[in-house]
Design a protein that fits this description.
heterodimer; A: Immunoglobulin-like; Immunoglobulin-like; 3 domains; eleven-stranded antiparallel beta sheet; seven-stranded antiparallel beta sheet; 5 helices; B: about 190 residues; alpha+beta; six-stranded antiparallel beta sheet; about 35% strand; rod-shaped
Chain lengths: ~475, ~190
């Protein structure tokens, strides 16, 4: 037993030595410890928005109406939206953006006036309004603030017809709030998308539908508003070979009146003007949804002068019709009634023949003379006069051309068959010049045909009186509205 | 066996008596005639031990601009800001050839709040980064006494690690900083 106990004691000492030598540093020496106690709970700030409420209404002449009321021109769509701010330990910038809402109107053809945004509820600070957006700084002073923005989108008073009956889906084009720590969008940001109920435009406006050469139907398409309408101006645009200057000249040479029908005395008259002439006269009433006729009464102020200057010229006369709402909101709508007007291009008339002679080898040619538009001196509307004679095969060849206003041409015996057979002669008038000469696609012929032949003395002489010209091309251009 | 045990007790008693007489004869001065003595050392000697101590002072808080933050618990951190805690650590090292190894034990931010996830913590010892929440302790060897600077920085990055905005992440939250334990070990 004593031996066993001694062995145990030795083992214990050995283990102790092993333990002491086995842990290096601990065995090596001293250790001291200290502690740094920041003892701090770190807390973060807050930068948040919370949507409180939003609504859409319609301001019609100062009266507030539901957004379900069809919009009329001149109405103001009013969007109100409120957010509550939480701003602690941080400053930021609050933005209200109604761009999408404004664009939604434009996408439907509903033009807006200048929008406005008013924001209330913030502590005084820097802010910039560039409607349809608004930006303002926020600080801890705005913590808990209820911020309300009022966006006013005025509907234009002169809406295009395409804007009628349009649904503007503001739910798909929300107004947005955005609160950012920095404009660089680092740090925190929060925001709200404000989906709003849709609004619909009324079918307000005016449609003008052509019903005839001089007539049109004017319709007030509004479902609720009576209007007063009137043609307000007329303009002319050139057609085909007519020039701009000629179109303006034609417009100036016309007397233009309008009535609700073609039999009454015109209640509206076009006044003097240039490319556009104002139309004056008392407006006519038209209740919601009703239609009225409109008749344009167009005639040359001086028919002869107009023909001489602008014979065969064609213009498009466009009459603008304007309707104005009888009561607030004030709005107007316009429509156009186009018509084509051509100045008459009459036939050369009074073709006369004076026989020539041939004596002692001296020739006096036969002479053909005519009149045109009651004048023998001024025909600027005629680009070219042409005297033609008929061949034996029935075709026509040019004998003489003239751009003068003499309205006569000579026929020499050399133009006539030596057999003494009578030949037909007629006059053609071409109204249009082209850059390369004369536009021969449009012309009018004399209403009669003269017959000439060589006589026994080989002179060019008339063969009886001129005969009627039965060629369809001889038909005059009557002119007028079409 | 009983007889054998009695014989043995008698023998032991006799031996003890003889031993006592010998011990008394050897230790009693009365038996000596002459004696003398001489000290080994010239004078008394005092042995003094060295020191190995470390002691951190109370620190101060500042923000990124260096402005004092008297109440850091009331300071609301936001993305792009930082809080800085600065303190001094006195190290006492005396003794022949003594060396000390400074090691920190710091868990940084504790908790699972969004703020705890967002914040970044770093410490430096005399300007050198010390590992936070590392498996391998960062250590530094010192050989003499001195005052050292310990700086802890709590940063709320301006953006997420991928550069995107925080949105509303970690707003109105709290996170706790653990104590920093600094150990000086003789080596």
């Amino acid at each position: 037993m004593a031996t066993v106990r001694g062995a145990g004691a030795l083992a214990a000492v050995a283990v102790a030595l092993l333990l002491l030598t086995g842990t290096g540093a601990t065995y090596a020496g001293w250790i001291d410890t200290t502690q740094v106690h920041p003892d701090t709970t770190v807390t973060s700030g807050v930068l948040r928005t919370e949507l409180v409420g939003s609504a859409v209404s319609v301001d019609r002449g100062g009266a507030t109406m539901s957004a379900s009321a069809p919009l009329l021109p001149g109405d103001v769509v009013v969007i109100t939206t409120s957010v509550r701010l939480a701003v602690r330990g941080v400053a930021g910038e609050l933005t209200l953006d109604a761009t999408h809402a404004a664009d939604a109107f434009a996408a439907r053809g509903v033009t807006l006036g200048t929008p406005s945004i008013v924001v209330a509820g913030l502590a005084p600070g820097p802010a910039t309004a560039d409607a349809p957006t608004w930006r303002g700084g926020v600080t801890e002073a705005d913590d808990g603030a209820l911020v309300t923005a009022t966006v006013r989108l005025p509907v234009h008073t002169d809406l295009a017809s395409t804007a009628q009956g349009q649904l503007v889906d503001l739910a798909a084009a929300p107004v947005s709030w955005e609160l950012v720590q920095d404009s660089t969008l680092t740090g925190w940001h929060d925001g709200e998308q404000v989906a709003l109920e849709a609004v619909t435009t009324d079918r307000v406006g005016l449609t003008v539908t052509r019903t005839g050469a001089a007539t049109a139907s004017v319709t007030n398409t509004s479902g609720s508003a009576s209007v007063t309408w009137a043609p307000t101006e007329v303009s002319a645009a050139p057609v085909d070979g007519t020039t701009d200057a000629e179109a303006t000249g034609v417009l100036s040479g016309l007397t233009i009146g309008y009535g609700t029908d073609c039999s009454s005395i015109p209640r509206w008259q076009a006044e003097a003007g240039g490319e556009t002439r104002p139309v004056t006269g008392a407006g006519a009433a038209l209740v919601a949804g009703a239609s009225s006729g409109m008749c344009a009464q167009v005639a040359p102020t001086d028919a002869v002068a107009l023909v001489r200057m602008y014979g065969a010229r064609t213009v498009t006369l466009t009459t603008t019709v304007t309707a104005a709402a009888d009561v607030a909101p004030a709005w107007t709508a316009t429509g156009e009634a186009p018509a084509t007007y051509q100045v008459a291009f009459p036939q050369p008339t009074g073709l006369s023949c004076t026989s020539g002679s041939y004596l002692l080898l001296t020739e006096t040619p036969a002479r053909l003379a005519w009149t045109w538009a009651g004048s023998t001196t001024s025909q600027p509307a005629v680009a070219l006069w042409e005297l033609v004679t008929q061949r034996t095969d029935g075709s026509w060849r040019t004998v003489a051309q003239s751009v003068t206003s003499a309205l006569r041409a000579n026929v020499y015996r050399s133009e006539l068959a030596s057999s003494g057979t009578a030949q037909a002669f007629k006059v053609r008038a071409y109204p249009f010049s082209t850059s390369g000469g004369v536009d021969r696609s449009v012309f009018v012929e004399s209403d009669t045909v003269a017959l000439l032949r060589r006589d026994l003395l080989d002179a060019a002489v008339c063969d009886g009186s001129p005969q009627p010209n039965t060629d369809p091309a001889a038909a005059p251009i009557p002119g007028g509205l079409s | 066996m009983a007889e054998i045990r009695r014989s043995s007790r008698t023998t032991k008693a006799l031996v003890a008596g003889a031993t006592a007489a010998l011990l008394l004869g050897a230790g009693g001065g009365t038996f000596a005639r002459w004696q003398d003595e001489s000290p080994v050392l010239e004078a008394n000697r005092t042995f003094t031990s060295g020191t190995l101590t470390i002691d951190a002072a109370a620190g101060t808080w500042t923000d990124a601009s260096g402005a004092a933050v008297l109440d850091p618990t009331a300071y609301l951190m936001i993305p792009g800001t930082k809080l800085i805690y600065t303190t001094t650590v006195d190290v006492g090292l005396t003794g022949a050839g003594i060396k000390g190894l400074v090691e920190t034990d710091f868990k940084g931010i504790v908790g699972t709040t969004e703020l705890a996830q967002a914040l970044k913590v770093g410490i430096t010892f005399d300007g050198e980064d010390m590992t936070v929440e590392a498996t391998e302790a960062t250590s530094r060897t010192l050989t003499q006494s001195g005052t050292h600077q310990l700086v802890m920085t709590v940063t709320f990055p301006a953006t997420r690690a991928d550069g995107t905005s925080w949105g509303t992440f970690a707003q109105g939250k709290t996170a706790d900083l653990t104590a920093i334990s600094i150990e000086l070990v003789q080596i």
